[in-house]
From TrEMBL:
Cofactor detail note: Binds 1 [4Fe-4S] cluster. The cluster is coordinated with 3 cysteines and an exchangeable S-adenosyl-L-methionine.
Transmembrane portions of the chain: none
NCBIfam families documented for this protein: hemN (TIGR00538)
Taxonomic lineage of the native organism: Bacteria, Pseudomonadati, Pseudomonadota, Gammaproteobacteria, Lysobacterales
Protein name: Coproporphyrinogen-III oxidase
Amino acid sequence: MQLKQSSGNNLFDKQLIQKYNLTGPRYTSYPTAVVFNEQYNSGNHRKNLLSCYEASVNKPLSLYVHIPFCDTLCFFCACNKIATKRREKADVYLDYLEQEMQLQAALIPDGREVEQLHLGGGTPTFLTHEQMRRLMKMIAKHFNLIGDEKRDYSIEIDPREAAPETINLLAELGFNRFSMGVQDVQKKVQQAVNRIQPIELTAKAIKQCRRSGAKSINIDLIYGLPHQTHESFKDTLTQVIQLSPDRLSVFNYAHLPHLFTPQKRINEADLPSADEKLRILEMTIEVLTDAGYVYIGMDHFAKPDDELAKAQQQETLQRNFQGYTTHAECDLLAMGVSAISLINHCFSQNVKTLDAYYHQLDQGQIPVMKGYQLDRDDQLRKMVIQQLACHFVIHKQQVEVAFDICFDDYFSNELQQLNSFITDGLVEVLPDTIVVNDKGRLLIRNICMVFDAHLNQQTKKQFSKVI
């Protein structure tokens, strides 16, 4: 079944969005991180890697490395970061990061090719050129990096500190995908969130990425920030579209100052109303689809010839902690503070503070704080939720063959819960498939929640609104 692309006009139904605009996960994992527990520790992680050592010899690997430092604090940020002007702090961090790499690599077969690499943060371009070269040498020493076209090596860059020579260095080191935060190009909005970034800087960075042979360029935007209006954000989109990024992530700002301290510096009275946010969202979908971008799902858009759009058409798209990915077959090994691995149906998350990270490594331990081992039911539900989140369809027979079940019997309660979505024209339940209609695509998180066995009233409080 080939996925049908939707037009912007078919996606947005204000009445239904208001009805279903509840809190819920983004499903970058299943189960979500709120289910992880401290009974799963570094010993479990080590045992898990060793248990699948032989079977994984020829399996490709995805690496994630978290660089937590930022030069300047953005008030909207909900990431695990440390704002500092002291670049030498990264030298100490790299010392410990190499210790972790050595411990982790000892549990991974030498021959496994690293098809996917992602540097996230914080801001990886906080690192000096010397530090970046050192980091990549460390990774190459302990893991099997590749140099051919199969590689998907991406990095998050800050246009404010990504001079042409920095981007040239990143390309020289093997990076071929670049993602950059923009959020909004209006000066008043930028001042309110402490991120002053003239559009000229972003344009210059994109131009240099293209000169350096980038396979793909992503821009992050956020709607719902202080002083944003329908008209101001339309102007932002117009200016960004002129830069012609391959992918766009347009996130809904979730104002949760009780969870993220920097957000306390944002004046709540300056935030757009709920109605205005919906107007901005509707306009965003129309403007981007009119400009030729395909709605991938969960805030993401891509050009039709981008690998994300192609993978969605071929139903090979997956989601992980970096969002949508085309490397579903890879184990994900993550390093650095707060980083989350997924290997052999087991999640493991590192400690979240530098002090705890350094202490664990001083003890010679992989700095895992908590994790979770998926049981058979989790694996089954993960497959169902992945199909929904990535392709807007569930193929019952695929699930039945993979897990030796009768889909309609196993999910009889869930099928009952879908009735309101069916009545509202969001979902169709057919003998062989469950299909999400156009108007259900923006509400895909709600539909995924039906199949989430771990979700309850308490865990729902830890998530943002779905729109």
